[in-house]
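Quality-control log, excerpt.
Job 1 of 2 completed; input and output follow.
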Amino acid sequence: MMKRNLLLLALLTLSAVVLVVRLAPREDSVSGSSTDSLLLPLIAEKVNEVDRVEIVTAGDTLVATMLKTGGEWRLQQMDSYHADWPKLKTLLAELAQARVVEAKTDKPEYYARLGVENVSEENAASVLVKLGFGDQQSGVLIGNRAQGRQGQYVRLQGEAASALVDRQFDVPTETIDWAESRIVDINSSEVAEVEIIHPSGERILVMRISADQTDFDLAGLPEGREIKSSWAVNSLGSVFSLLDMETVRSTTGVDWNDAVKLRMLMFSGVEILADLVESGDEYMLRLQASHPAANVVGKEDGVSPEQEAIEKQAAEDVGKVVEGINNRTAGWAYGISKSKFDAMVKKPEDLLKPLESS
């Protein structure tokens, strides 16, 4: 009988413990919060009207202010240079579509576990994204990504409750990462000529007659000298391939008097002229595109109307390429990497085998 009573008492105690555990609220949960609802319903409805976005990190550090002006997004922290619209568009779309999966803590002492602290805190892990249109504004604190499941923790600015949403966000915390970093991207297969002219008069010209020609030829090879390698010569055709900036500012703030000149001619007829200078510890470049051949299209004798129409259409297509480059680069001086800069300012001796000492 004694053993039976002890067993019954143990079972009753265990049941009570389980009941207490079930009834006790979790530290990181908020009772009564709705799930499977849009995180930012107003932004979901008005996302195309958003005309300003701010990115703020720990210590209330304003990383990026992007404003939509004349249908184009500009980054104020970089002299109103072009913002990275694809990246920004993705962030806006993800925020507009984000849905709450699970309500989380509304207690400030637990915010750090989810990375949704106020950005006024010096060591906050969160990133505040502020979205505005007209006189309305919404802010959301982006926290840690969930472990072992899809989603990310967030908290609306000014709200106590946090939540887990059904997607993850790419929110860079460096200003440069919100700028359109690509200057130009020209594959070497499109390049017919590259010419480099130094203020001293030293000059390099490499060329190909057609795109089918594998290697570039070095014009004016000195008698008795040999090129260092085909790769050394061919590398000049890639100087504008995947060319990204490290910084940008107005061209008026740079002294271009002793600039190295670079000219690239593409088989399409597009010509790009660039100036390159060292400015302090930066390697600066400015460029401009043109289409010289467009001036003679349709002026040759004996050209049939059909051929003339084809040439005019080709000229128009190339003109759009030129316009696109100039609209993006006109008036801007770009800081580029030293390796890219060095590749653009080579001298003849850099392409030749050393002279044998006698």
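Job 2 of 2 completed; input and output follow.
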Amino acid sequence: MSRDCHVDVETFSKVLLKTAGTYRYAEDESSDIMCLVYAFGDEPPNIWIPHDIPDALAKQIRTWMHEHHHGGQTFIGYRCPKRIRWHADRGGRFWAFNAMFERTVLNGPAGRRIHFPKTKRKQWHCTMVQAKENGLPADLGRCGKALKTPHQKDEDGRPDMLRLSKPRTPSKHNPATRWTPEDVPEKFFNLYKYCVDDVLTERDTHYACKPITKNERKIYLLDQKINDRGWMVDLKSIDDVQFLIDEYKKRIVEKMIKLCGLKPTQTQALAEWIRQQGVDIPNLQAQTVEDYLKKKDQPQEVRWALRMYSLHNMKAPAKYTAMERAVCSAGALRGMFNFYGASTGRWSSRIVQLQNLFRPVIDDPEFAIELFNERELAVIKLWFEKNPMKVFASCVRGMLIPRIGHDLLFADFSSIEARIVAWMANAIDK
């Protein structure tokens, strides 16, 4: 009996994975597993469709599995295949490309709904991490091409997978908000084949790559623990500051319309208006706007328009919206860090981008957060000389709070990268 089981799932949810993140997606009650494909060791893949599907579609997928994957079985219904349950209950290893997704979804409401056994972090191994440590991209299809694996990922089913994974727009003839196998059996058939392809390509990638070191494995498990635990956020203060941001943006819009008849969101029209004022600006990208604001010879109306445009579209305050989208039910941001995100092996951050927070331009962000509770822009302007948007941006870090009974301790190393390089080069001179 193989100790390794290669797994891939295809899911549906009302939550947008890209903006909410894996954990918020996994905990949502709307999230659902449309199919699960697994393969033990070198054995043929098996497909489990944990829902009832039309008989014709069931026959079609069984025939395809028999013709293309002799020995591969097709399970249809809510009961978890016995071998999967046996493997999970005995601490067997599961492999997946971006295993954090499969683990959290299968341990969440979607997995419990289909009676998938609960698994532990140490049971999961990530082929994506293995690939990245071998200098390969964090994309399964590109990994297969780079390694010239025996089984290449078939992208033909991707459009159908993307369509079925999200809510559909209701129509007069079909008020349902989700596609079903009865509605579009051919698309679900393509989805099932796509999932089988993923498992075969993932397994080939795993075999082709050098295993990660024991030390990296320990760090990966620590990373998963950190992502599971997450960062608590001050939701009340976020709601307060969002109210103030909305109020301030309304005032910016009013001033912009009064000045040039345009909103800050009308980028192309605003760029054309600026050119009509005699300023040859190539675009309204952040760096371009910043450069033009430094020029003292620009018409005053153009400078005001650029400044209001820049403030309205300031990226740092947008992190509050990102926090609200990604926060989980317990009030924590989970899954914000990407293990081996850079080619050097260091972490990267996703969704809220906690590794790239605005450097405060005010002395006391905590006091500003207290003032947000008043929900009065006049109070913010009274206490701080900086523009309100910069005050809001300066308080993003303050929204990260400790759990009850705990403290947050922050530490940083001085010039750590330069010191490590010197150590690696054996440069011991002062």
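Post-run check on job 2. The CA atoms of residues 289 and 310 lie 7 Å apart.
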